[in-house]
Design brief:
The chain is mainly alpha-helical and 331 residues long. The protein contains 14 helices and no strands. The longest helix is centred in the N-terminal third of the chain and has 36 residues. The mean pLDDT is 84.
């Protein structure tokens, strides 16, 4: 395919993805226990609708959808950054322990210090950040190895999961409040949750655009990057910290939603290649689409029971992970 043909293909993929995003938001607004037509949605927007519809759309579905968009974008961007830095399609904030670090701090905040719940995004980031540093140090030996980072991350994931379970056993009288959070879901999320997470999410996503050039340089290989005058280890550390920040933001609101950072960037990479000038923004859009669409399916498929979206995404992501293992050697 010619250079012009590839550019046209990428623009077409971007346009289709954006249209899918709009369609997914439409599905999220219209589908549910109370079906709402497009006409009713329009009447809500111009303030002439039934009060019942206005309450459902404005107070329940709209904030949930916006949070889902931000959570999906953060998780997919985090996964794309980790996969680029580690040059491994299995890198994902959930698999290598970053999400577990954020999750542990979130659990501690909710169970032990509930009066500081407004600090949840910051605490989740601190947990993800600290976990990342530990993993990085464990993998360091005259430089870092992407294989060691992943192996250390898997071990940390298991350890943090055990500590998380221990905290819940100790505070078993309060654990009911975090059970749904552990499964990963958007049920009950409101404007309040959006208000304290969106500044962090917007800042993190905007900063990630400055990571496009460094990751493209890293993909050339460490030696080539050094010849171009880049401090590869510092660059890799900063990118991993950015990925941790994004994962911590998502975890603080949605709980432990997994596999978005694995599935979306890898699928986009199959379509457009390794160039992060397109891969990163398309991963953001793709993550937003996947989380909102999966949440819509999860809350409508088993009515009147609302299935946490994390369970549905795990059912999608785990087979995809096994498919990657079977398809080729990835480490």
């Amino acid at each position: 395919m010619s250079l012009i043909g590839r550019k046209v293909k990428k623009k077409y993929i971007f346009l289709v993805t954006f249209c899918l995003l709009i369609f997914t938001v439409y599905l999220g607004l219209t589908f549910g226990a109370v079906p709402i037509s497009l006409q009713d949605i329009w009447q809500v927007l111009i303030s002439t609708a039934d009060d019942r519809y206005e309450s459902i759309i404005i107070d329940l579905r709209l904030p949930r959808i916006i949070i889902g968009l931000l959570v999906g974008a953060c998780l997919a961007t985090s996964g794309a950054l980790l996969q680029g830095v580690m040059k491994n399609p299995l890198a994902d904030p959930g698999i290598i322990g970053v999400s577990a670090g954020g999750g542990l701090m979130a659990i501690i905040t909710m169970l032990i210090f509930p009066q500081y719940s407004y600090l949840l995004p910051i605490m989740a980031f601190i947990g993800a950040f600290a976990t990342t540093i530990v993993i990085y140090l464990l993998a360091w030996e005259n430089g870092t190895s992407t294989i060691k980072i992943i192996l250390a991350g898997v071990a940390m994931n298991a350890l943090l999961g055990a500590v998380m379970n221990g905290v819940m056993v100790i505070y078993s009288d309060r654990v009911q409040s975090v059970i749904s959070w552990l499964s990963g879901g958007l049920n009950g999320r409101s404007w309040y949750h959006l208000e304290f997470m969106y500044p962090y999410a917007i800042v993190g996503l905007l900063i990630s655009f400055f990571a496009i050039k460094p990751i493209n340089i890293i993909l050339l290989g460490d030696e080539s990057a050094k010849l171009l005058g880049q401090n590869v280890e510092l660059m890799r550390l900063l990118l991993i910290l950015l990925a941790s920040f994004l994962a911590g933001i998502a975890v603080s609101v949605s709980g432990l939603i997994g596999f978005v950072g694995l599935v979306v960037p890898h699928f986009i990479r199959l379509l457009i290649g390794e160039d992060y000038r397109m891969l990163l923004p398309l991963s953001m859009l793709g993550g937003a689409i996947l989380v909102v669409f999966a949440d819509t399916i999860a809350r409508t498929m088993f009515e009147p029971i609302e299935l946490p979206v994390g369970i549905l995404l795990a059912c999608i992501g785990a087979p995809f992970f096994l498919f990657l293992l079977r398809r080729k050697r990835v480490m």
